[in-house]
Amino acid sequence: MATALNLPQTPLLRTLPFRRAHKSTVSIRATSSSSETPLTSTPVTTEQEQKQGLSSSSVTFAPPPNFKPPEPKRFGVRPDKTWDILGASLALPFRLGTGVFVSGYSVSFVSKNEIPSGQYALDVADFKVKETSKLGPRPEKPIEIYEFESCPFCRKVREIVAVLDLDVLFYPCPKNGPNFRPKVSQMGGKQQFPYMVDPNTGVAMYESDDIIKYLVGKYGDGSVPFMLSLGLLTTLTAGLAMIGRMGKGSSHAPSKLPPKPLEIWAYEGSPFCKLVREVLVELELPHLLRNCARGSPKRQMLYEKTGHFQATVADLQEAIHRRKVHGIVFGYGGGKDGPEHWGNLNSKYSTCSNGKRQSPVDIVKDKVVLNKNLKPLTREYGPANATLVNNGFNIAINFEGHHVGVLVAEGKNFTLKHIHWHSPSEHQIDGQKFPVEQHLVHQADDGSFAVVSTLYQYGDPDTLLSKIMGKLDELGKEECAEHEEAHIPLGHFKTKRLMRKSRKYYRYYGSLTTPPCTEKITWNILGKVRSISKDQVEALNKPLKSNCKENSRPVQPLNGRQIELYDELGGNKI
């Protein structure tokens, strides 16, 4: 059901004092929804657009040219954002973590076997962290709040909605904002913040303390959290919490209103979320905030939607999936963007030149060490939605979701993320290259990566590639610009054919074979060489850029590393 934010004939607005405070108005209808359903809305239209005969239906909203959503990154701080994050983190000690935990939060350490593989949970040593909370009644429609950053009274309200795990439709009201500040005057009779509207009950009110008492009474257990019950001291500490981000998120910056409110999964206690919220407020972008503080059931919802909750150090998948990484294009061959120069293309690529545990390597059988403690590679894959991708520097199959299947290695589950091919092979056996090498890339919940590599020699067609030859031909006809990718949906893709039993594999620790050449990758090179047809090799190479037709990095020195062998049949290295 839609809540009309500007129509005086609605029952809610008829009960409120009304005065025309500003000539510039904005017409918005936002369809409120429960936390289980996506937000939809009718277009947002400003008065200026109406005068010009425009509407949001005539305005095209599209991503910037060549924009691609970034891959999730593991928990870490970008060097140029260190001081921003530190400033935003000052709120944690001043507010004693209020807004970090959901009401009734409790935590316990349990055996990893007690948490299903598809359930969100933190790993700590050999245990899983089981988090629970006690939530009150859930509103059918999101609470609507008009507020802005750098306001201690507004912060108090943002903290309580995080504690109560409420979804909130925020209408930012930065200073000099032309849209929603006047709206508050129209609805409530004055520009005072925060201002709350509960579309579920028809209640609307100013005053942060009154809003807090109302929300805990309606959607909590009736008890105001300690750090929000201290009166003036609460307001003072809420003000001190913003010292590190003084003035951020309070002044208006020109922007175009989107046709629908954005949807954000975040919570008040996170310094990373704080930086995003500041920008949303300054641009006056309405947004539905799905609160997901620690203990929130919505963490599991997000985990199921995306296959992870929070990716946490450097982004390895971006380097694996894309030719353009950190804005720099790399290639192969002897040119200035070739492997010998990768370390000089960008400071983030320095490991390509300076790393001591780089991949690929030449596996010299006489120097391989049999390790009887190694376990068989256990792989359990299932059907999943997949997309065939031309990254420019290789052909890949990307899988969606978290339930594609797993590789069990070193006592840890690694989820299959994607498959890609290199031609000729990157790894060598006793100095011998092979026509093709296939990489199955897996990632564990702690962010670590494991790759299963298969070498191919010419012969009968490969079974997996035979299934997608038509799609490869289609991909070869796709035209894409220098930094773009071509995508061909594969639909429901059966990955069971990848679970070939291997009685022998080589294990060592190396790196990505593309920039930024990040190390600490667990490599498993299968001992059995498979067959592939020449037509299939040509189909893999045809869509690639001219300087990536041969997309294998030269072998790197071992630098004292040991390559180990698992052999089910007793240790024959041949």
Task: List descriptors.
2 domains; Carbonic Anhydrase II
Summarize the structure.
The chain has 574 residues and is α+β, with helices and mostly antiparallel strands. The chain has 16 helices and 31 strands.
- Low-confidence runs: 1-59, 311-327
The whole-angstrom Rg is: 28 Å
**Helix amount:** 10-25%
What is the overall pLDDT average? 81
- How many H/I helices? 16
Q: What is the strand and helix layout of this fold?
A:
Elements: E1 2-4, H1 11-14, E2 26-27, E3 29-31, E4 40-41, E5 45-46, H2 47-51, H3 82-89, H4 91-94, E6 106-111, E7 122-124, E8 127-132, E9 143-147, H5 152-163, E10 168-172, H6 180-188, E11 195-198, E12 203-205, H7 208-219, H8 232-240, E13 262-266, H9 271-282, E14 287-291, H10 298-306, H11 316-321, E15 324-325, E16 328-329, H12 342-345, H13 351-354, E17 362-363, E18 369-370, E19 378-381, E20 384-390, E21 395-399, E22 405-409, E23 412-422, E24 428-429, E25 436-444, E26 449-458, H14 463-467, H15 469-476, E27 486-493, E28 504-511, E29 519-526, E30 530-532, H16 534-541, E31 564-567
Helix pairs in contact: 3-9, 5-7, 5-8
Describe it.
- The chain is α+β, with helices and mostly antiparallel strands and 574 residues long.
- It has 2 domains: 255 residues, no CATH class; 230 residues, Roll (Carbonic Anhydrase II).
- The chain is 21% helix and 25% strand.
- Strands 18, 19, 20, 21, 22, 23, 25, 26, 27, 28, 29, 30 and 31 form a 13-stranded mixed β-sheet that branches.
- A hairpin with a 2-residue loop joins strand 22 and strand 23.
- 40% of the residues are buried.
- The N terminus is likely disordered.
